[in-house]
Amino acid sequence: MPSMKVEGDSDGDGDMSGGDTERSNGSSRPDRDSSAEEADEPDSDDSSEMDESECERRRNECLDNLTNLERQFTVLREQLFNERMKHVEYQLSEVRVGRSQEYLIPLAQLQENMKVRMEVAGILKKMRIENIKHKYDAEEIAAHQHFKVSLHIIHILAYAPLFTCDSDT
Known about the structure:
By secondary structure, this protein is mostly helical.
């Protein structure tokens, strides 16, 4: 039986051709369709030509659909790329002007962190300078005390013979 298009089939929608429909119906009623196919054996050359031309037509339709889909995909991809580029350029202009919230919020956090670190560094510097002054004062006091003790020892050693009575003399 030559393949015919069943009503309701649309071109290029992935629907089965008439021959495919007959085969799918044949799976539900194998006895009736297989006997009909056996009766059509003498016309197999005509039906194969018809099937080949139908297959070629369907193949061309599918290729046209594929080409159309590829064009649409390319257009959509370019639109998406252009939209993303516009969005990135807009964000960049917002950053340059200084109005971008994506930029200002982290910048404010960084500036706050910098302010805290500067305060901590200032306090640390002040404490280190104070520590150095204390060490200097301590060294100065220690040197002065050492000088006094050394002077006292020298006085004792120098004047000790004067105050001691020598029994030998």
